Amino acid sequence: YRKHEWDKHGTCAATLEVLNSQKKYFGKALELYQHVDLNGCLLKAGIKPSSSYYKMTAIKEVLTSFYGVTPKIQCLPPEEGEKAQTIGQIEFCFTKELQLTNCMAPKGESNPTQAHLKLGTEELSICNDTLPTYYPSEVQ
C-alpha cells in the first residue's frame, strides 16, 4: 500500500524539497493528518461515527466553516434496498506551501479515473447532497 501511494503521489510531491523522500513524504502526511484532526472537528459538531444518518449538506457546512476550505467528499452508493450512502473518503487539498486550499476539479475535468476510486471492490464517487449519509467508524 505504501509503495503504491509513493509511486502514485509521492514521486510527484518529491519535486518539493520538504517532501523529497519517502520518509519526509509520509512523515509530513501524518503531521498534516494530526493537524487537520478531521474526526475531532466532526465530533465537536456532534457528527460521530454511528448507525444514525446525517445530511451531506450539514457535514459539508461544518467542514467548510471550520477549515475555511471546501474538501472533496467521496461516498459509496447505497447498497441494494438501502437509502443511505456511506462516506468512504474525505480529501483535503493543499497548496505547494502546504496551506489548505479548496479542492476543485481542474477545468474540463472529465477523466473518469479522477472521479472514481476503487475501495476494495466498491467504487467511490462524489457524494450525493440529497441522500442520507452514513459516517462509518471504519470502512469495511
TrEMBL record:
InterPro entries: RNase_T2-like (IPR001568), RNase_T2-like_sf (IPR036430). It holds the Pfam family Ribonuclease_T2. One of its GO terms (cellular component) is extracellular region. GO terms for molecular function: ribonuclease T2 activity; RNA binding. One of its GO terms (biological process) is RNA catabolic process. PANTHER family: RIBONUCLEASE T2 (PTHR11240). Belongs to the RNase T2 family. This is RNT2 Ribonuclease.
